[in-house]
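Render this sequence as a predicted structure.
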Amino acid sequence: MNDALPGGNADAPGKLNGRETAMIDRAAHDLHGEVRKDIAMRPLLAFLIATIASPAFAQQPASLAGHYDGHQMEMGAELILNANGRFQYGVAYGALDEEAEGTWVLQGDHILLTSDPVTPPRFVFLGQKPAPAGIFRLSLDAPEGMSLQYFDAVLSFAHRQPQGGQLTEDGVSIPIDAKDPPLTARLFLPMYDLKGDPIPIDPAKGYWLSFRFEPNDIGKADFRAAPLALDEGDLLLERFGRTIRFHRDGDAPPPE
């Protein structure tokens, strides 16, 4: 006696009848449809997850918008957070004046500031030539009216600690120890926390190095998601080795 599937054809063991074939085809179609639907939804889900996790999705709560005063001893500071997600920032600290504008967002317990694009200042190495015997010389061309005394130069050596100091209006002139001559020279502008690249010194070309300083957008802070901590309604910014505490003292002025 031949076994048959329920409702099947006993004369053709293992062969499905029309009703069973239709049921299997329908189930396969439904399954394939769900798979296609799942695949189609994946890019959308990935986009939503990435968007929610990104800084751009962070909010600008209206309660944080306003004018903030950061004045303290020897420093004037101001921060404006606009409800539309824009900010304006300014600091006067000794001989330094700094400003910035861009966008702000709230993430967790920090506000993040991101400046509009700026071209940072830089040092350009012009070349080297022979210097007077036993002397290292460094010359720097700076814009008219900008004192070279704002700049520092540092030399590195093979067998001793780096050596350097403040430039004069004539640059830098340092005696050379023939047993341990300088290997690299590097320029700094401390008031803006600007550091040049270390420049290797080729003894065959001489020990007189020349540079040019290009200010570009000097004085404009290049914030890149710079964090301000929330502290009982105040905003704390770490800058120039100090903590600037901004206290809200009014509404943001209307946009121009």
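Summary. The helical segments are 18-53. The chain has one helix and 17 strands.
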